[in-house]
Amino acid sequence: MALVAGVDSSTQSTKVVVVDADTGTVLREGRADHPDRTEVHPDEWWRAYREATAGGLLDGVSAIGVGGQQHGMVTLDENREVVRPALLWNDTRSADAAADLIRDLGGPDSWADAVGLVPVASFTVTKLRWLATHEPDLAARVATVVLPHDWLTYRLTGSLVTDRGDASGTGYYSAAQNAYRTDLLELAFGRAPELPRVLGPSEPAGTTSDGVLVSAGTGDNMAAALGLGLGVGDAAVSIGTSGTVFGVADSIRADGTGAVAGFADATGRFLPLVCTLNAARVLTATAAMLGVSLSEMDALALSAAPGADGLTMVPYLDGERTPNLPDATGSLLGMRRDNMTPANVARAAVEGMLSGLGAGIEALRAVGTDVKQVRLIGGGAQSKAVQAIAPEVLGVPVTIPAPAEYVALGAARQAAWALTGEPPTWS
Ligand SMILES: Nc1ncnc2c1ncn2[C@@H]1O[C@H](COP(=O)(O)OP(=O)(O)O)[C@@H](O)[C@H]1O
Ligand SMILES: O=C(CO)[C@@H](O)[C@H](O)COP(=O)(O)O
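Above: inputs. Below: predicted complex with 5-O-phosphono-D-xylulose.
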């Protein structure tokens, strides 16, 4: 029995699964936390990877793949040393740079036509503009720009490579043309640093010093789609640090409003996606405010009536990306003396968080991605209140797949594909 491993290096933690390459059965798992910041040195991801795989977790593994949080700006100097801590997808300091870039290219539609997305603070291209403007001395030292999963793959193999899925979230790669747009990189940064080579879906990146085959890796949402085995027409909602709604499509879905990002997937197709900044942590922050555990918060939310007796939470606790309101703060609306109960506050948090994702489903439909039902994954999908309330708020049937690390499983599936040359037929 061959073993393959998959890594999910996401915002809050690294998770690793070791699975049977023939069946996809999970045999071993490891995890380690990341720092809770929006600016993180990549060494922290390597430390977490080492911690998550300690104690022989990878013994006997023939191939491994890495799924990583999308968009983070990792800058390397001419010796391939990290120039500065990475700015993550949820760091909003580049919001003004995004607005400047939209103006520089002639408006949102010009970006949607060029690279399938309209700049917001999350995307790598805006972080590079911010760096060039605010830290010119550091910018001058940048020889190479990669994404979080590319950097981990580089640490494992010494190869500077990426995949089409993660590249499509940079803002300087056209998934429709399958080519970098170095002109847009120059527009943002003043010059075009070296970029990783884009591998095909089953093309290996190289091997580790122990001889383990390493697959191309991909962005965490692309890996989740692979882990769930989504086909064209299928859709999923992930409630992790970010909230995402995405579906698999056979052609690009560009959206000049900027709500939908026309990403590529990890199989050669497309992954139109809407992302919110406020998801599972709305639940944890509300539970902390109420002084209750997550399961007590579930019970409170489920004890309140739909609509929370008129109490509405707009949960923009970390600013917001969709809609593009990077400086927004949250609001609690409709407060009356008789509805200000812990149960209504808990319910309003769940409903408010899910409403942003419901709007995401509408945005996907508006660009021609029909969403008839969704699979609900991510840490927040374990909430009993979320599970019960999601169908009402999202307006579609919701399936809860068996709890699993779907990003890590998708990365493992890609590793098995690279190992055997055939996409695994795991159920
Ligand atoms: N039962 C639960 N109810 C609500 N939130 C939960 C529950 N279990 C986990 N979470 C939250 O889910 C988040 C982690 O989800 P995950 O998908 O692993 O995130 P990421 O991949 O972004 O690191 C954490 O904020 C955690 O507190
Ligand atoms: O920016 C996006 C998608 O465009 C985020 O979904 C990141 O990819 C981080 O994901 P999680 O850590 O929440 O899984």
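The chain has 14 helices and 23 strands.
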